[in-house]
Amino acid sequence: MKVSLYFALKYFFSKKEKSVINIMNMIAVIVISFSTASLFIVLSAFSGLKTFGLSFTNKFDPDYRIKPRSEKKLILSNEQLSKINLIPSVIESSPVLENKVVLSFKGKTMMAVLRGVGQNYSKIVQIDSLLISGSWFNAGYSEVTIGSSISRILNLGVYDYSDLLKITVPRKSNKTTINFDPFKSETALVAGIYSSIDNMSRFYIFSDLDFARKIFQKKNDEFDFIDLKVKGSPDIEDLADEIFKLLDTPVNIESRKELNSAVYKMMNTENIILYFVFSLIVIISLFSLFGSIIIMYLDKKREFFIFHAIGIVPKQIWQIFFFLGCCISWVGSLLGFIMGFIIIIIQKNFPFIYVPSTSLAYPVEIQFENCLAVLLTVFILGCTTSLVATAGIRKKAYLYLN
Questions:
Q1: What pLDDT score was predicted for residue 334?
Q2: SS3 for 165?
Q3: pLDDT tens for residues 99-152?
Q4: How far is Cα 293 from Cα 392, in angstroms, rounded to an integer?
Q5: DSSP state of 361
Q6: Which end of the chain is more exposed for a tag (fewer CB within 10 A), N or C?
């Protein structure tokens, strides 16, 4: 094996090789390098875009959410709610009321979701950091914070006293049918406008819990769910057991990832598709390696007698060509990885590509998983290509020498 490796390296770096073989080897290295770099750049760019997109979700959704297991609502007293904050891993909690509403402003109407939250809700999620105008609503007042899409559709601004935002919901059933109004309406002043890239988040409006309770006609102990901010990453089963002991009510605990399972699945699917598409480009680039090995075999076939005379058997001749093919793929993959790594570092620190029609630098992120996936992919595919290209060399060398 040492002899075959020695001859492979000497054969690869020999200056006496014919120019055609050298050119073919260099073309194979260059093609593999560019395909490897493209694979790494695309995966890093998608990771950056994924992190950038999820950063808005992280600001909009809590760490964990307590939901009723079988009933449609949670029935909890103030004492039970206060006990949740006594759990060591819980930093802050807030009961929430949420339902669909109809918004009306100066003859324009649209559907939205009203979420009534507690006074400490801004400590649980970072929704106030998404504000682009105005401020977070004031507790105890008929004020709301709306999404930028709602503001654009209704042509509604902050503290617009020319007219108030009208919020309408179906009224609960009443035994008295005379002069019964099927809808209940309340007016509110817009205190702030937030912006988010999540389409669902854009159509949420936030209000004080008492205002939501009034418009939804809920009792003081009725809630739809409870949002939590926790320390670190506690075990979800242990957290659920502690909450069940305190509330004595069967509940489900959902993490932020579970709340946005559709978004995570979509992004993971897109990531896998991108990986396979650009892996196919790597496979196509390895055809140059296949051709390079075949040309080297045809050129060196006449020298097999020299190899045989110095004691190299057909198996070692195959090892020479196989190792040489692996060397070409390894060198190309390492050069491509280094080239892609440098481009990502430059984009991250000195951006030169921006999101179209914005001044926002295209987000990129270097992740260990991407580095490992790229190198292993090219290494394995390169070795497989070398194995396929040299599959018949051992037998042909044996027949040729005999």
A1: 94
A2: strand
A3: 999 999 988 999 999 999 988 888 888 877 788 888 889 888 899 999 888 999
A4: 12
A5: B
A6: C
Read off the amino acid at residue 206: F
The one-character DSSP state at 171 is P
My answer on whether 40 and 77 are in the same domain is no
More confident residue, 262 or 213: 213
AA identity, residue 21: I
Residues recorded for the chain:
402
The whole-angstrom distance between residue 43's C-alpha and the CA centroid of its chain comes to: 11
Instruction: Give me 32's structure tokens.
Output: 């593999």
Q: Structure pTM? A: 0.78
Q: How far apart are CA 396 and CA 109, in angstroms?
A: 80
- What would the DSSP string read from start to end of 311-355? T--HHHHHHHHHHHHHHHHHHHHHHHHHHHHHHHHHHHHS---B-
Instruction: Kindly state the tokens that stand for 289.
Output: 């390696």
Quote the CA–CA distance of 144 and 221 in Å, as a whole number. Answer: 22
CB 209 within 8 A of CB 162: no
Most confident of 79-83, 207-211, 230-234: 207-211
Boundary residue ending a domain (258, 279, 295): 258
Token pair 């999820």: residue: 54
In the block, which residue shows the tokens 């801004």?
122
Last-in-domain residue among 258, 281, 306: 258
Mean residue pLDDT across the chain: 84
Domain that holds residue 355: 2-57+263-401
Same domain, 193 and 327: no
Which burial class, exposed, middle or buried, applies to 107 when counting CB atoms under 10 A from its CB (0-12, 13-18, 19+)? exposed
Whether residue 101 is found in the same domain as residue 249: yes
Kindly tell me the burial class for residue 266, based on how many C-beta atoms sit within 10 Å of its own C-beta (0-12, 13-18, 19 or more).
Answer: exposed
Q: What angle, 0 to 180 degrees and rounded to 10, lies between the N-to-C axes of helices 287-300 and 314-349?
A: 150
CA distance 230 to 89: 5
Residue 339 is predicted with a pLDDT of: 96
